[in-house]
TrEMBL record:
Family annotation (CDD domains): HATPase_Hsp90-like
Family from the record: Belongs to the heat shock protein 90 family.
Classification lineage: Bacteria, Pseudomonadati, Bacteroidota, Cytophagia, Cytophagales
Protein name per UniProt: Chaperone protein HtpG
Designated gene of the protein: htpG
Alphabetized Gene3D superfamilies for the sequence: 3.30.230.80, 3.40.50.11260, Heat shock protein 90, C-terminal domain (1.20.120.790), Histidine kinase-like ATPase, C-terminal domain (3.30.565.10)
GO MF entries: ATP binding; ATP hydrolysis activity; ATP-dependent protein folding chaperone; unfolded protein binding
InterPro entries registered for this protein in UniProt: HATPase_C_sf, HSP90_C, Hsp90_fam, Hsp90_N, Ribosomal_Su5_D2-typ_SF
Residue sites binding ATP per the record: 32, 36, 77, 82, 97-98, 169, 339
Keyword hit for Ion transport: no
Alphabetized UniProt keyword annotations: ATP-binding, Chaperone, Cytoplasm, Nucleotide-binding, Stress response
Pfam families on file: HATPase_c_3 (PF13589), HSP90 (PF00183)
Length: 627
């Protein structure tokens, strides 16, 4: 038997296009060919289970080998095999129409996966690295004869009688000069580890040395010797393919360490398993992330039938869960997936919604079952929850029941609990509930203490996204306003009446204002004299809440960069009822008044960590002189 012919693609331009547009991602040839071999092995296994194949299945392994001298890479399986007619059908007749239109459409393409995925060209990815490909195959069908197919990368092929004696297929790649980097054990091992670690059929790549016990020495201690064993690349039954009821915590933790050997143990995990309206399995882990906001992304691995596709899962996993770790496997996502496919596919959108719901349900369950444990983990998972509530309306609806607010005393409250707590003392004269918060408890300690003296509670909102979370809370909570604790003096943060009277006369207030403006000498500071509690500080420096918030958001990238570039402007509140102000007014000389005012102002700056450099040096010197 010998036959020559032309591959039915209606154009001679197809191979140059495949080579040109797929070259940048040429390592996927091995993924494609090994995946095909696994499919063939699984199919013969399926036929045997149905009674349609009566022969001995044997060892259904896929073997990958290379010969550096002959410059070949061989992928062998013991699967279905193919007859000469089947080779002509499946290999020669590339299943798409309008090849000329294809050439025109993709002449500027850059995405290798887009081309392969759209037109089923997986096998032909071999020609990215090979100048010739041979197929040696023997079908499982009774009486089938072995066949050999050869193609040199043009549209010409040759089929002849083969010499394979057992069922299955060998794909032999004759590697071209540009791709000889793949004729390397470590390179091939790296690619197999990346794409084939969890395939359902054993993948064997050469051998490896293992140490085994070999009797005992004279003292009765075990002796060991080194033996060569098959180098099996993969775990054929990873935990996401099993039922959660068959797994222990140790199994999940062991698998996590396989994926992320350098990471701390995760907080907990979610086992995904759904078969309608789409197929999806997987395990998602909640790692300890704290505030390492950008460092932990792209840790979820996407698989299709246990074949690794990518760790860029932005369209499949909601944005706020990109900080999770783990695996997702869905046969409804094609192996050769492109970004444009992900963005348009209906199943992908359903998967995205399902994962959001599953995560929200799991968090709600953990909160209800063991609140103390949930609270102890809040420092790690709060970032996920807040991010989700900001970005996903449906997640907010569920998250509001288990999202926690933490105050400066370390106490935790749900949003409803906290609103109820504030009704007693933090409602202003207009009926607005005022939530006070700090984003730096140490730096703003003086303001926190002033608020605490009035029995005001202060939340700690200091994560990278809390500036955005604050806006979300104000939008969602009725008649509620959030103010940073240093946005104003304590008496003015929650306005309940017209405030305390100022003991200074109008002329005295004007004089104090002029003294401080001269002492400060900086137009970025606006001076105001007010009647406050005499126990409050003589001078307080504040920034208006809106401007502070916009600047905080600008730092975390919220489309507020305009505010981030604006100069800082502060309000200097002089407590007209404080005895220090009376002392300033009664100082004997203008110089003494200015020095006292400057000292009081610098003390206010010092209390907020705003005093440094030359100003700090002068403050210390002045303080020594005043002692």
């Amino acid at each position: 038997m010998q036959e020559k012919g032309t591959i039915s693609i209606h154009t001679e331009n197809i191979f140059p296009i495949i080579k040109k547009f797929l070259y940048s991602d040429n390592e996927i040839f091995l993924r494609e060919l090994v995946s095909n071999a696994v499919d063939a092995s699984q199919k013969i296994k399926r036929l045997a289970s149905l009674g349609q194949y009566q022969g001995d299945l044997g060892d259904l392994r896929v073997e990958v080998a290379f010969d550096k001298e002959k410059k070949t890479i061989t992928i062998s399986d013991k699967g279905l095999g193919m007859t000469a007619e089947e080779i002509k059908k499946y290999i020669n007749q590339i299943a798409f129409s309008g090849a000329t239109e294809f050439v025109e459409k993709f002449k500027d393409a850059k995405d290798a996966n887009e081309i392969i995925g759209k037109f089923g060209l997986g096998f032909y990815s071999a020609f990215m690295v090979a100048h010739q490909v041979d197929i040696h195959s023997l079908s499982y069908q009774e009486g089938a004869e072995p066949a050999k197919w050869t193609c040199d990368g043009s549209t010409s092929f040759e089929i002849s009688e083969g010499d394979r004696t057992d069922r299955g297929t060998d794909i032999v790649l004759h590697i071209n000069e540009e791709s000889e980097e793949f004729l390397d054990q470590y390179k091939l091992q790296e690619i197999l580890d990346k794409y084939c670690r969890f395939l359902p059929i054993p993948i064997v790549f050469g051998t490896k040395s293992e140490s085994v016990e070999d009797g005992k020495d004279e003292e009765g201690n075990p002796k060991y010797k080194s033996v060569e064993v098959d180098n099996v690349i993969n775990t054929t039954a990873p935990i996401w393919t099993k039922s959660p009821s068959d797994l222990q915590d140790e199994d999940y933790l062991k698998f996590y360490k396989e994926l992320y050997p350098m990471s701390e143990d995760p907080l907990f995990w979610i086992h995904l398993n759904v078969d309608y309206p789409f197929n999806l399995t997987g395990v998602l882990y909640f790692p300890k992330v704290k505030n390492e906001f950008e460092m932990q992304r792209n840790k979820i691995k996407l698989f299709s039938r246990q074949v690794f596709i990518t760790d860029e899962v932005k369209d499949i996993v909601p944005e706020f869960l990109m900080l999770l770790h783990g695996v997702i496997d869905s046969p409804d996502i094609p192996l050769n997936v492109s970004r444009s496919f992900l963005q348009a596919d209906g199943n992908v959108k359903k998967i995205n919604s399902y994962i959001t719901k599953k995560v929200a349900d799991k968090l709600g369950e953990l909160f209800r079952k063991d609140r103390p444990s949930f609270e102890s983990k809040w420092g790690d998972i709060g970032l996920f929850v807040k991010y989700g509530m900001i970005s996903e309306e449906k997640f907010y609806d569920k998250g509001k029941d288990f999202a926690l607010l933490t105050n400066t005393k370390g106490e935790h409250f749900t949003m409803t609990e906290y609103q109820e707590k504030l009704q007693a003392n933090q409602v202003d004269k207009d009926g607005q509930t005022i939530v006070l918060y700090t984003n730096d408890a140490e730096k703003q300690d003086a303001f926190i203490q002033s608020a605490n003296k009035k029995d005001y509670d202060v939340l700690v909102l200091d994560s990278p996204i809390d500036s955005h979370f604050i806006n979300t809370l104000e939008q969602k909570l009725e008649k509620t306003s959030l103010k940073r604790v240093d946005a104003d003096v304590a008496d003015k943060l929650i306005k309940k009446d017209d405030g305390m009277a100022n003991v200074l006369t109008e002329d005295q207030s004007k004089a104090v204002k002029e003294i401080f403006e001269k002492a400060i000498g900086n137009q970025a500071y606006t001076v105001e004299v007010e009647g406050l509690n005499p126990e409050e500080l003589p001078v307080t420096i504040t920034m208006e809440e809106f401007m502070r918030r916009m600047k905080d958001m600008a730092q975390t990238g919220g489309g507020m960069s305009f505010y981030g570039a604006m100069p800082d402007n502060y309000k200097v509140v002089i407590n007209g009822n404080h005895k220090v102000i009376d002392r300033i007014l009664n100082a004997e000389t203008e110089e003494a008044k200015t020095n006292l005012a400057k000292q009081a102002f610098d003390l206010a700056k010092l209390s907020q960590g705003m005093l440094s450099g030359k100003d700090l040096t002068e403050f210390v010197k002045r303080s020594v002189e005043m002692i």
